[in-house]
Amino acid sequence: MKEQDGGIAVSVWIASLAMMIGLILSAYLHPAWLLLATGVSWAIVACIPLPYRKFVACYSLIIILAGLFFCGYEILHSSEVKPLAEREQSIWIEGVIDSPVRRDGDVARFFVTITSWGENQPDQNVHRSLEKIALRVKLASFQEATQIEQWRRGSVIVAPIRLSLPAPTRNPHAFDYASYLYWQGVPVTGETNYQAIDVIPAFSVSASFQEWQDSGAKRIESLFTDPETAGYMKSLLLGLGQEVNLELAAMYSNLGLSHILAISGLHVTLVSSMFMWCLERIGIRRRLAFVVTILFLIGYVLLVGASASAIRSGLMGSVGLLCQVFGKRLDGKDVWAGALILMLVLNPYQLWHVGFQLSFAVTLGLIIFVPYSLHVFVRVPVWIRTLVSVTLSAQLVSFPFLIYHFHLFSPVSWLVNLVVTPILSAIALPFGYIAVVLDFVHPFLAVIPVWVSTAMLKWIHLPLFAIEKMRLPFTYWPHPSWCWLVLYTCFLGVLPISWKLGYHRKRDIMLTFVIFLMFIVAARQPFSGVEEVRITFLDVGQGDSIVVEIGDQKVYLMDAGGTMRFPAAEPWMEKRDPFEVGKDVVLPFLMARGIEKIDRVVMTHGDLDHIGGVKSLIPHFSFGEVLVNGTAPSKLEGEIVQLFQQEGVPIVTGLPGQSWSDGPGIEWKWLHPGESTFSGNDASVVLQLTAYNKTVLFTGDIEKDGESQLVQNGLTSVDVLKVAHHGSNTSSTEELLAVTAPKVAVISAGVKNRYGHPSSEVLHRLKKSGSAVYRTDAHGAITLVITPTGLYWQTQILDT
């Protein structure tokens, strides 16, 4: 708030916050909130002192206008073909390629902005439209794969496509592809094959810059002969993040270094400074050099892909240079706010993009907190204070975003960033750009900067990989609640206010640090679910994976699904990062629950669809012991057991009647197999859990003979039955159901699986026994929570 001529001037900084509030409210509330906000704001204006009325009225108006703008934007971007996509109908489209074409194996993906479409031939029943879809193109040959990589933004395509809606997330806190596409302005997906598409090349500015980017990538490949280093430098210098080696990218992500590979303010500052220095060396006047550098920055942002962080950096950098041209000085927060408002006016959906959030949040944190933190430890040399201030400010602000979106924040992230970021910024980044520029003059001149960059990267990556393999505690963080996020945001907002009010004595700083530690402890959710047993039947497709959390004490993992994978017919068809259910479904869920130790892994039997995913989990967790059925292991099971033994994890089995307790009122019992000749599915481990007087029976893939043996051994009634063998007709016999009389049955089966699971006979038998049925193919992940007062169910996909 600024006093001006006896009134209150509008602050761009506060206006940007008001705009974000309006957009968020419109995204999650009924449009009627706009009427309510109008009435409330007028009531407040009428009740407050005169000097503040303009202030409240102005920013209330901005909130309401932002809300109206968002509603209008959604109406303008509503989909005409969505009803057809719901029926998975095929149509003809004519449109323009609106994103880089990314090929992965025998599939290419890109966005298309439709200009016209028809339900039959392209010249019949034409509908004019302007909406974006995500197109998936199937490739049949290496020639097609080579040709589609030459397609560029702006080219016109005509093709028959089969429409569909993006699938919603099927497991708690998993990556939501449908939501991701929605905030990209893409409500519908389409699929076709290469042969059916007609492409008409067309000139576009973005296509030209993509050509230059590809040319730069080839130049980097020729300079850096090591493929890992070349991929790293292509990401570092050109923003081609998909080129980074998967293991290297995972290490950077786990240690909180991913921001180094994203084009950001660091790149813009370095590149613009180097360019300015060159202009001044050749005698160009300083003011003209500023103008030329602004034009150069625009080109640079387009060259590196125009990501949210690159655009934000380019905008703020250009404004800073313009201020130099006209001899003006602007507050950093106002420059930040201006860039934010401009980008959100162009596309308000960007507010929900992770890169946009992190870029703007961290930049704001640096603007606000670095000047204050420089006044702490004043006896330390200023360069050290600056380095520490920048690192800690960035970590402080990025923390909630990282644990919310990725459930990942390494306890050594601040230290690693403090050491590694300056080295990479001072050596790898500038030497990489210098090598590329010198290569234009003569390749020999680039030898030394290439050697320095390569040697430095290998030297620094070695200890980083070692740190990553240490499995440090407090790396995976449970999904934070909205209450925690709001309170943490308020805490950050109060810090600069309290400093300005004079609360920056040593004891004030110590109190602030204590409060911050309390927030960190609260983020671990130490008191959440202390007296509950949470059982999550994950949706792993056609397979089984069950996570049982006993309060905050013990974690059981019963199977981890598995992905049937066939070798690619040709090398070009290999996927860069093939889907694997353990890595892509089970691991993210365990991370989102903040689980870092699995006390017992139960491998019910050796089938791929039950234990295939276990292999990819072993490097990420510590383990107590592994329970197996005691029969001769399959080849896959033997490989997994060997990996556990290399980690020093005990491998144990059990006998019928054996039991153990995990606390008062919580008892496990091993029911099957015993010393028998059972093999295959009938040798599945069967466990019974009794928690707070509720009983759950876990049956693996046991079939008719195994169930008969269970009944003979003396089964009793249960509250919940995990239906055996995905609901196959070979299991869940009337004999078993008559004895157990389950109130609820849970079936784990894949959507539209080729086996027809669950069978209609089993569903009929369960209905006849009076059991309510939950199915992962219909409900997604299913969660059962048992407490001393009862139990309740949660499903990822609600009944419709």
Automatic annotation (TrEMBL):
Membrane listed as a keyword: yes
Please state where this protein is localized: Cell membrane
Task: Give the matching CDD domains.
Answer: ComA-like_MBL-fold
- Regions crossing the membrane: 7-26, 32-50, 57-76, 256-276, 288-311, 351-370, 382-406, 412-437, 444-467, 479-497, 509-527
User: Does this UniProt record's set of keywords contain Transmembrane helix?
Assistant: yes
Q: What is its main location?
A: membrane
Q: Which residues form the signal peptide?
A: none
Residues of the Metallo-beta-lactamase domain: 542-751
What topology in the membrane does the UniProt record assign? Answer: Multi-pass membrane protein
- Reactions listed under catalytic activity: 3',5'-cyclic CMP + H2O = CMP + H(+); 3',5'-cyclic UMP + H2O = UMP + H(+)
Question: Which Pfam families is this protein grouped with?
Answer: Competence, DUF4131, Lactamase_B
Ordered alphabetically, the record's keywords are: Cell membrane, Membrane, Transmembrane, Transmembrane helix
The task this protein performs is described as: Counteracts the endogenous Pycsar antiviral defense system. Phosphodiesterase that enables metal-dependent hydrolysis of host cyclic nucleotide Pycsar defense signals such as cCMP and cUMP.
User: What is the name listed in the Swiss-Prot or TrEMBL entry for this protein?
Assistant: DNA internalization-related competence protein ComEC/Rec2
